[in-house]
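Continued from yesterday's entry.
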Amino acid sequence: MKQDFSNVSEERLAELFPVILEPHNPEWAKLYIQEEERICRLFGEENIVRISHIGSTAVKGILAKPTIDILAEVVQDFDIQGITGRMQNEGYVVNRPAGDLVMFLKGYTSQGFLGQAFHIHVRYSGDWGELYFRDYLNGYPSTGVEYEQLKVRLKGEYLHDRDGYTEAKGELVRRYTNLARLEYGERYKP
């Protein structure tokens, strides 16, 4: 079913979708696999270069927004228009944030969250920082704890401002992503 947010104000969206943090849930990995299979089916496996579980739900042991972030890297001639219509018909909300070709959201309704939330970031194949950051947090649990503490503090400041919350985490994310790139080299170079 298509979701329509055209008549929902920014203020109402902020109320409907606050920053929520939950303890790590091992089920997130299973839910990622199920959604990965769905994406491969909808996109066509021949159109996917790499698909990855990113974000805090992919980091063991830390609090996370219970939204499963997925990076779907696609071939250069991927039919973005065609997949956008298909994803809308499957109930995904279309978003076009900077850095992504398109992003599909699932679990969002005009009444609030419904079921498991997913963010599918669609990009051309590349050397993406989210992969490095995820691996660094998994490899250095003390950094994961530092990140978790920042998120808890920021939740209090940005409960109804998800964009502000994300932006406020930026300095720490960039710092550890850069360290990961130094340590891991060109691990994700296509």
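--- second protein ---
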Amino acid sequence: MIVKTRQAGKGVSYASPIGSRGVLRLPPEHAGLKVSRHNPSSAMAHCIAYYWRVSWDLRGRQPHLQETLPHPNIYLVFEDNRLTVAGVTTSKFTRILAEQGFAFGVKFKPGGFRAFLNSSASSITDRIVGAHDVFGADGNALEAALISSCGEEAMVAAVDAFFLRRVPEPDENVELADRLVNQILHQPQIRTVDDLADRTGLSKRSIQRLFREYVGIPPKWVIRRYRLHELIERLEAGDPLNWPDLALELGYFDQAHLINDFRAITGYSPADYQRR
């Protein structure tokens, strides 16, 4: 079971699968943690990154506090016999794992869920909605199918079949949104939206419109979050850091702005985090 699941300062939210980039607290080795991923059918590969399942077993042990930095992805999540859609969350994920349980879901590529909404992706940012709110009675039917499924493979098959009946029409903006987000992730030289515009040949305004409509959050947010992910990796490595130079490298005006942003999203100063 999950004793408590929350997003700092917001209501209920779901963390991305454990083991992804940006995890602040990994479960202890005795948690019996199991993580698996499954590729979607090729017809949905342009929208869906993968199907995933996370399970844990902390029976007879202390609960574990898991914290994760957010990613620019929308998720379909099945947990505690309930199927929901989780929009992009702008704050840190905080959840307490206790006893025994699991979560199963779908990670959509940036922009990949837009075809299933009657509005922009930003309309569900920082929100959790029932699958029936997006898919109607078919969402309830999928929830029932997952409740009655016997095992992980059956869940994967049920969800894959569900989306194969709903393959969206081709939309070049879905591919573009995913490509731009991945460009930000893999090119740390991109520190500002202007940098992204210069590298892609797109106007700054068109990039901002695309991200609002298809990804759900501004491009500046994605850049800052991925740069903070890089900082966490460096802190985890334990290497000495030149903070003034690092702040400029990560696209911040100065060291103070970097530290304040890090504390605002993680709840810790970089020094406190490294000591932990």
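Strands lie at 2-7, 34-38, 48-58, 64-68, 75-79, 82-86, 93-97, 99-108, 128-130. The chain has a mean pLDDT of 88. Will compare against the first tomorrow.
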